[in-house]
Design goal:
The complex is a heterodimer of chains A (221) and B (423). Chain A is an alpha/beta fold and 221 residues long. Helix content of chain A is 35%, strand content 29%. In chain A, the strands form two sheets. A six-stranded mixed β-sheet of chain A has the order 6-7-8-3-9-10, sandwiched between helices. In chain A, β9 and β10 form a beta hairpin. The longest helix of chain A has 16 residues. Chain B is an alpha+beta fold. Chain B has two domains: 173 residues, no CATH class; 239 residues, no CATH class. Helices cover 53% and strands 19% of the residues of chain B. Chain B contains twelve helices and 16 strands. In chain B, the strands form three sheets. In chain B, strands 3, 4, 5, 6, 7, 8, 9, 10, 11 and 14 form a ten-stranded mixed β-sheet that branches. Chain B has a four-stranded antiparallel β-sheet with strand order 2-15-1-16. In chain B, strands 12-13 form a two-stranded antiparallel ribbon. In chain B, a hairpin with a 2-residue loop joins β10 and β11. Classes of the chains: A alpha/beta (221), B alpha+beta (423).
Chain lengths: 221, 423
């Protein structure tokens, strides 16, 4: 489903550049639940950003099925994100000026769905995640676990083929982390491909495949 | 969607939104005041611009009081004087006679307000005088000859202006009243006024626009003045009339020639007239001066200052908005990123910012235009149109130059860097 070949990425650091990814090779199959582990600054987030089409590699190939993603324009990448990818972030899962409904509805608005269609889909996804009661709440009134569930609802609203999650339980307590990981497992069992970036062995333990990034190189486990 | 995003962003930080709008309102009020000043100055310049290229040659009669009687004893003295005045009016250059001249306005029924009296501005209004059971108030008046009247396009608010016939002797002397006379006298009123010792029936034919002015060395605002035409008179009817015409003509030959020519040429023309009519008692006074030179310099300086001040204000406003908007964008990175992962593009995010700047600038611009539009309309409908156009340009200018740096920031900002800023 996803194939990376010799993927390299560096960022400017003063007059020099800092090489974050030094030639990543990776293959992710449909329905796989993969944990990408590594220490802070190892390049996990950068890799996830490239997989999400938020960033482009300096060199190397990124294939999504038969479609080469590397080399697409920013607008094409936005379309790719809308159709294929659900992205969950760690520390800032929701837009603070929108209520839960509008946060979850955002990807549908970018896909130009009609209002009644948006209403139906949002209510369905909130219901399936048992958070219908939060629909009119503002983000600052939610607990960490509730906010992360809403973020997952937003990531799932477009029924993406792949869910990317960057440290999805990093700021949650143990019990909430457990709930969220069970939710990921359920989604995976329903056929979603899930890629988690984490430094937690507890998170990686729920995945069926694990790989590690160290010094910009990917190592399989 | 853009409307919703702009609305949310504006509501998200209400204090910021209010502050930036306040800054823009203050800026626009200041430039509106500058515009008003600029328009008024240009209006004044427009009125007197015909003097820009001319030099002023003041004329002075050379008849000292002790020689005056011997001059009047000469044959045809008054006729020669009249011919000399005719010669000045047909010299080929403009002969301008603008003279502030108190006239005695006879009013038995009501009292004239002190502000209309001669000497009021210097704190010493002339007291009324009585003669033949009539009370005369020495009110301020300005005499204009036909050429002076044509050079200053004095606008009449009500009634009619002077016609060429009004500058020739008539049974009733037509006058125009300054705007402050509104409600005191009405158009068509006939009054008695004493000019140079002779009573005239004067008829009010028009009321001037507020702030009408003529210029002689300095501006003379006509609001509290009676404007009289310099009339030319025929054969005197009696001895008193002879004496009056002598005083009148001897006074009105002390005007000024406005010419583009050098002094020697103007001098030659004057000498020719003097010789033709046998009236040697007039001379050019001193060196030619640029008429209204001080006024033009002041106008130029004011216009320059207004332009410079406006530019500084606009630059400061643009800088302020740009800095504030960039700060807001930086505060908004988190939300922008969530838009991106939801399928938004940088282009769409930039359009939200553009929409926000548009609203932040346009609402104050519309408010200020509505308030100041009424004030500017008083100047003229054309000034109002120019003002609306000016405000639209100001708003467009602020929007464009505020957004350009933000656009550059967006173009230079890879999404990964955007994400890194929050990590």
């Amino acid at each position: 489903m996803i194939r990376l070949k010799g993927l390299k990425k560096s960022f400017p650091a003063g007059k020099n550049s800092f090489k974050v990814l030094k030639g990543i090779d990776l293959e992710v199959k449909t329905g796989e639940m993969l944990a990408i582990m590594g220490r802070s600054g190892a390049g996990k987030s950068t890799l996830l950003n490239i997989l999400a089409g938020l960033d482009q590699p300096d060199s190397g190939e990124y294939w999504y099925g038969q479609d080469q993603i590397s080399g697409k324009t920013l607008d094409e990448l936005a379309g790719f994100r809308r159709e294929k990818i659900g992205f969950i972030l760690q520390n800032y899962p929701l837009i603070d000026s929108k209520n839960v409904f509008n946060n979850v509805a955002l990807p549908l608005q970018y896909s130009n769905h009609k209002k009644n269609e948006i209403d139906k889909k949002v209510n369905e996804i909130l219901s399936s995640l048992d958070i219908s009661h939060l629909v009119n709440r503002q983000p600052d009134t939610l607990s960490g676990g509730e906010a992360q569930r809403v973020a997952i609802a937003r990531a799932l609203i477009q029924e993406p083929e792949v869910i990317l999650a960057d440290e999805p339980t990093g700021s949650l307590d143990e019990e909430t982390e457990h709930d969220i990981l069970n939710l990921f497992k359920d989604l995976n069992q329903k056929g979603n491909t899930i890629i988690l970036a984490t430094h937690s062995s507890q998170v990686s333990s729920v995945c069926n495949n694990i790989c590690r990034i160290q010094d910009g190189i990917m190592y399989g486990i | 969607m853009i409307v919703q995003e702009v609305k949310e962003s504006l509501q998200r930080k209400k204090v910021f939104t209010f502050s930036i709008m306040l800054v823009i309102i203050m800026f626009l009020i200041t430039v509106s005041a500058l515009f008003q000043g600029y328009t008024q100055i240009l209006g004044k310049e427009g009125i007197i611009k015909s003097f820009r290229l001319l030099q002023e040659y003041s004329l002075l009669d050379t008849l000292p009081p002790d020689e005056l009687q011997s001059f009047w004893n000469e044959p045809n003295a008054l006729d020669r004087l009249k011919l000399f005045y005719d010669g000045l009016e047909t010299l080929g250059d403009a002969y301008i006679y603008v003279h502030t001249q108190p006239i005695g306005l006879s009013q038995n029924d009501s009292k004239i307000d002190e502000s209309f009296l001669q000497g009021y501005e210097s704190g010493n209004p002339w007291p009324p005088s009585s003669r033949d059971n009539r009370t005369y108030y020495s009110v301020k008046s300005v005499q204009l000859n036909a050429q002076a009247f044509s050079m200053f396009p004095i606008s009449v608010k009500d009634g009619q202006s002077f016609s060429p016939e009004d500058f020739h002797e008539s049974q009733i002397l037509p006058v125009l009243l300054g705007a402050s006379y509104s409600g005191i006298f009405e158009i068509g009123n006939t009054l008695t006024a004493n000019y140079l010792g002779k009573d005239f029936e004067v008829k009010v034919i028009g009321l001037l626009e507020e702030n009408s002015f003529v210029v002689r060395n300095d501006e003379i605002f006509l609001d509290r003045y009676i404007v009289m035409p310099v009339q030319q008179f025929g054969i005197p009817t009696d001895e008193d009339d002879v004496a009056f015409q002598q005083r009148h003509y001897l006074q009105i030959i002390n005007g000024a020639i406005y010419s583009e020519d050098q002094k020697d040429i103007v001098q030659a023309k004057l000498e020719q007239v003097k010789e033709d009519v046998n009236f040697p008692h007039s001379a050019l006074l001193g060196m030619p001066a640029l008429p209204l030179g001080k006024l033009f310099n002041a106008i130029d300086e004011m216009l320059y200052l207004i332009q410079a001040f406006s530019i500084v204000l606009i630059v400061a406003c643009i800088l302020g908005i740009t800095i504030l908007m960039r700060k807001k964008i930086q505060d908004n990175y988190k939300n922008m990123m969530l838009h991106l992962i939801s399928g938004g593009t940088l282009g769409q995010l930039f359009r939200y910012v553009l929409g926000e700047v548009f609203v932040l600038v346009c609402i104050p611009a519309i408010l200020v235009t509505l308030v100041f539009g009424g004030i500017v309309l008083v100047i003229s409908p054309l000034a109002l149109m120019l003002y609306v156009l000016f405000m639209a340009l100001c708003a467009a200018f602020i929007i464009i130059f505020s957004v350009i740096p933000i656009h550059l920031q967006f173009r230079r900002l890879p999404i990964s860097q955007l994400l890194k800023r929050e990590e």
